[in-house]
Amino acid sequence: MILGERIRLRAIEKEDLPLFVGWLNDPEVRHGLSLYLPLSHAEEELWFEGLLKRAPEERALMIEIDDQGAWLPVGNIGLFGIDWRVRSAEVGIVIGDKSHWNQGYGTETMRLALKHGFETLNLNRIFLRVYEENPRAIHAYEKAGYVYEGCMRQAHYKYGTYSDVHFMSVLREEWPPEIDKT
């Protein structure tokens, strides 16, 4: 387990897959993700089999929140595309349980992933991509310490619209940021 103040990150189990299918088939959850088609349980099982073949450092983790003493799954996060020579990785996150949106769990999870990436994996740079039409995520990433790097103009197409893809990152020397932890 990787423990935070109100959350923990744990390995994903096969029994978790129905949760993911439910979350990822919700158009509102999928809105900020690269997924654009409904997802079957069989496809999620194939994703899980591929996950198990990845290096342990690149396996997505379940995000659980402390809900009155019980751990409640709300999403997942993972570092991937790790380049060990330059000590860089990309991070991806989804809070799939919409009843826990706008409560700071995304920001806290991103901070915990940075701590893990810098302190455990000895990374130097952790970056992400975010669609311009996802201001809630951009705000959470900024609160976690991510800095805007640049933009790929009209690099994403979904639901009949082109949109920009923003890059944000945190360097080890910038972490931990002196930011408001609220």
Give the helices and strands, then pairings.
Layout: E1 2-3, E2 7-11, H1 17-24, H2 27-30, H3 41-53, E3 61-67, E4 70-83, E5 88-95, H4 105-120, E6 125-131, H5 135-144, E7 147-158, E8 161-171
In short:
This protein is α+β, with helices and mostly antiparallel strands and 182 residues long.
Number of helices: 5
Distance between the termini: 24 Å
N to C succession of SSEs: EEHHHEEEHEHEE
Radius of gyration: 16 Å
Spatial ordering of strands, largest sheet: 1-2-3-4-5-6-8-7
- For the record, the CATH class is Alpha Beta
The biggest sheet amounts to: 8 strands, mixed
CATH-defined topology: Aminopeptidase
Total domain count: 1
Mean pLDDT: 94
- Which word captures the global form? globular
Classified in CATH, the superfamily is Gcn5-related N-acetyltransferase (GNAT)
Describe the 3D structure.
By secondary structure, the chain is of the alpha+beta class. It contains five helices and eight strands, in the order ββαααβββαβαββ. It has helices spanning 17-24, 27-30, 41-53, 105-120, 135-144; strands at 2-3, 7-11, 61-67, 70-83, 88-95, 125-131, 147-158, 161-171. Strands 1-2-3-4-5-6-8-7 form an eight-stranded mixed beta sheet, with helices on both faces. A hairpin with a 4-residue loop joins β4 (70-83) and β5 (88-95). α1 (17-24) packs across α3 and α4 crosses α5.
